[in-house]
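Re: Re: C-alpha cell formats

Sure, here are both.
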Amino acid sequence: MKKRVLLIVCDGLGDRPVRKLEGRTPLQAATKENLDWFATQGACGLLDLISPGVCPGSDTAHLALFGYDPSQIYTGRGPFEAAGVGMEVRRGDVALRCNFATVDEERRVLDRRAGRIREGTRELAESIDGMEIDGVVTHFKEGTEHRGVLLLRGEGLDPRITDGDSHEIGGPVLEVKPLVPQAEKTAHVVNEFMSRATEALSDHPVNLTRKGQGLEPANFILPRGAGKFPSIPLVREKWGLRFAAIAGVALIRGICRSVGMEVLDVKGATGGLDTDIEAKIEAAMRALEEYHVVVVNIKAPDVAAHDRKPGLKTEVVERIDRSLGMLREGIQEDWIVAVTADHSTPCDTGDHSADPVPLLVFGDGVRRDDVVTFDEISVAVGGLGRLRGVDLMPLLIDLANRSEKFGA
C-alpha cells in the first residue's frame, strides 16, 4: 500500500541542558504524553541537518529536509524571504533579508528586532519602498513581525557582500563591504539605502506613536543574507510527488514555494508565539487527503529560545504536544508521520547551534525501537541512528512505499 507523509518541523526545538530547568533541556522538562507515545510506537534517532559540527540556518536546514544539498544550490537567504512575502524575483535581482531595528543617534544597535514590532510595519515599509540609487530600484516589503525584505533591481548587481547586521546589541551598524570587486556597486547601494531609510523612518508617525507609548522605534533597517535566486529542481520533478506546506514565517513559505510546494493558508497560523498550532495540524490532516507529502513548520519554539526563555520554550513544547493529541486520535493507516527540528536553538545562547536534533518516525510498518521518551538524549539510542538532513526525505518516501529501485 502506498502511503502519505506528514513531516512536522518544530523550529529550533533542540536545546542544551539549562540550569533553570535543573540541568534538563526544555524537551526533557516538558510534559509531553503524545510525543512520547509517538516515540514509543515508532523509531527514533538524531539528525544533523548539514553535517556534524556545522551550524545550520533555517533556510539551508529546510532545503536539506526536503532532500536538497544546500552546498550545491544555496546562494543566500534573501531570495527565499522575497518569495515568502510575495515579491516577484527576476533574473539578476539581489535580495536581502532584513530586520526593523532600533539604533541610537550614533547608529549603535539597541534592539535588533525593534521590540519585536508587530503593528505598523506595512506603513513603515511603504515609506522606504521604491527608492532609486545609482540606477538601481530598491523595493522593500514587510514580513512577519520585525522582518522585512530588500530587493535590488538594476544592472551590475552582485550578491557577494558582507552583512550590515552584526547580530550584537550595543555595537555599531556595520558598513556593507564587497567581497569581490564586482560587488562594489551592490555594497554602495545597500549602504546608501540604510542611510536614506533611517532618515525616512526616524520621524515616521508609526515611530512617533511608539515613542509616545514607551516602545522601541523601528528606525533602522539591518540587512543580511544577500543572494540571487538559485536554480532549483522542483519537488514534483525530484520526487515525482505532490507536496504541500503550512508555515507562518515568510522565509519558510518562500523556500517551500521556491521548490514547487503548494503553500496552504491557515487562519491563525503565524510565525510567532501566538500561532494556532492546532489549526496547522488540523489543516495538515485534511491536506493529506490530496497531497502525497505535507510539511508543517511550527516557529514558536525558536522564538522562545531566541528570547532566552527556557520556561516559555517548555510551555511551547507542551502546546505542540497537546495539538498532536488530535493527530494521534485521527491517525490513518496509510500515514507516515515524522517529527523533528530544523536546528537546535539553545536558550542559554539565544542562537542556532550545531547540536543534532531529535527525530521520530511513526507509521504502520516502521520498525519500532526501545525509545520511550522524545528528547535530545533519549533518542540517541534509537533505531534510526544518526542521519543527515538530506537523508530524511528519501527515508520517509521509502517508508511510504514510493521510492524507486536503484539498479536492476
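Second one below.
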Amino acid sequence: MKRIAILLSLSLLAGCAGMQPPAAAPVPLFADARFAPPSEKVGAEELFTLSPAMRSYLNSQAFTRQLRQHGQRQGLVSALYSKSDLKLEYESARTRTAAETFADRSGNCLSLVIMTAAFAKELGMPVRFRSVDVDSTWSRTAGLYLASAHVNISIGSRRESGMRSTDQDDMLLVDFIPQDEALRIRARELEEDEIVALYMNNRAAEMLVQDRIDDAYWWARAAVAKRPGMVPALNTLAVIYERHGDAALAEQTYRTALQREPENMTVMRNLQPVLARLGKGDEAKTLAQRIASIEPFPPYYHFDKGMVALRAGDYGRARELFEREVKRAPYNDEFRFWLGVSHLKLGDISHAREQIAKAVDTSTRQEMRQVYSAKLAHLRRVGAATGTLIR
C-alpha cells in the first residue's frame, strides 16, 4: 500500500482512552451542504435494543441453565462467551449494534461490550463502561492507518428495591484480555454517551475505508454532535474533510482537536501535511520537527523498510526490521506474518511457522486469518515432507 499521512482513531478493540469531558458543540466545524445525503440510516437509537432472537435466547433452556448454575452475573457471561453455546468470533471489519453482533455471532470488542450491556440492562443489572489505559494498536487498511484503543465493561448485581452498589469491587469485570491483566491496568469510567459516540466514530472510519466519503461525514458528524470535544471523532471528521478536498476545514478541525489534546500525535501527524498543502511551510516544518522529537519513528516505519529489504532479497535485514516492528506492536498480525515470511526465506521453517501461527492468533479479520492459516498449512506439509517437526 502507498503510505499516506492520514491516521484514524478507530475503536476496534473498543474505545479511546484519555477522553476529556464534553465541550461546547463545535457547530462551525460542520459543513452539511458540501456532502450528499447519507445512503443509510445514521444514528444509534437501536444500539442496545434486543432483537426478537435475543429475547428468545433469554428465555431458552440453555440460558436459564447458565443462570441457575452460575448466578445471574457470571451466568450471563458464561452464556454469552462459552465456547459451546453462542460460539462468538472476534471480527473487526465492522462495528455492530447489539442485535447485529448477536445475529452474526461475531464482532469487535466494542460490539461485544455493547451486546453484553444490552443483555445485562434487560436483566436489570447495572453496567459500567471503562476506558482502559493500554497502548494503541495500529493497523493499515486501504491506505488509512487505524489506531485501536480499548474499553471493557463491568456488571453489577441485579437491582433490588432500588438499591445498587457504587463500589467497583462489587462489579464483575468482563474483558477480552486476561482477567488478571485487566484488573491491573489503569482505567477510567466512561459514560454511555461516550460509548455511543465511539460506535458512530467507528462507523465513520469504516465508511472511509470503503471510500464512502459522504456516509463517513454523516457518521463522524453524529459522533461529534453526540460527544462534542471527543478528539478521535474530531480527528475522523478532519480526515474526511481532507479526503474531500476541504483542506481549510480539515486544518480548522485538527486545530480544534489539538486545543483539547495538545500532545496528540495522531492529530499532529495529520495536520502537518495539511499545513504544507495550504502554503504554511514554516509552520509545517516546525510541527514536523516537534513530531520527530517526540516520536521519530511513525507507525509502520520499520515495516515499510523491511518490505523494501525483502523485495531486494536482503532477508536478514528484513527479519531484523520486522522484529523491531513486532517488538513495539506485538499484536499486529501483519508484522507477525511478514516476520514469518522472512524466516521462511532464510530457510528457518520452524520460526516461520511460529510467527505465522501468531499472526493467525492475533488477526482480527476473518479473511486474513484464512490467508495466514493457508500459509501455515503449507508449512506443516513442508515440515512433514522434510521430517521437520511443525506443531
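Residues 301-386 form a domain with the Serine Threonine Protein Phosphatase 5, Tetratricopeptide repeat fold (CATH 1.25.40.10). The radius of gyration is 23 Å.
- S.
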